[in-house]
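Preliminary data (for renewal application), hypoxanthine complex.
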Amino acid sequence: MQKLREAANWIQAHTDLQARIGLILGSGLGILADEVEEARRFPYADIPHFPVSTVEGHAGQWVMGSLEGKKVIAMQGRIHYYEGYPPERIIFPVRLMKLLGVEHLIVTNACGSLREDFPVGSMVFIKDQINFMGSSFLRGPNLDELGPRFPDMSAAYDSAFRQMGARIAQKLEVNWKEGVHLAVSGPCFETKAEMRMMRLLGADTVGMSTIPEAIAAAHAGIKTLGIACVTDLSVPDKHEGVSHEEVMAVAERMKPDFIRLVKSIVRELP
Ligand code: HPA
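Predicted structure:
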């Protein structure tokens, strides 16, 4: 709590902007943060106690300003569990958002699709999640000021928020779906046997992120919308290998629709 307060105080000493909306931008999708107007941009390394991302495609900036007339905090690049940070460090940014007043969070990622009818290019609104990351992320002393020891996770993704997203996606004619997201710790992509298992367990998409942030947000009472952008097919019979370069290239092609969608959603938020 002390570290979170120091980070929040540092940010409040640098800007008096009050944001109610948080955006976490996944692999290759960080460009949306460039559209934030009258922005203050803080490299993660400048914020006290903030974990710094090491992954290519993650610029690593905390951006505060206006998007579609709304005050936002955008994370351009996130910290991944596979980088080696302890679980509580991964959720530090979401908790910091909470301290700064964020009430709605849009968390996004690049993911593999576990089903052929969720093709590459789909934007999947996450309706639920399966945590295969090997950590609950809330293990350790509870921060009672943020939320309860035993948080309910049965509605981790807000259904009204998701319906709003779906309505807007439909109007914009982007290729959208609704599904269950499963995350592994990574950095390995999944084996074919794992793809089969994940599908059997009821997952539609697979990635290496988003679940920690959704857990921290649920704990702290932040309403969350998850958007998983399908960059590759994790379907055994259709799978011809996947690479980070491919993920980034597809994310690049999805950017225009992704930006349109997220901006339109932000415009309608309180
Ligand atoms: N698996 C896990 N993470 C991913 C994938 C995938 O297929 N694609 C993008 N991130």
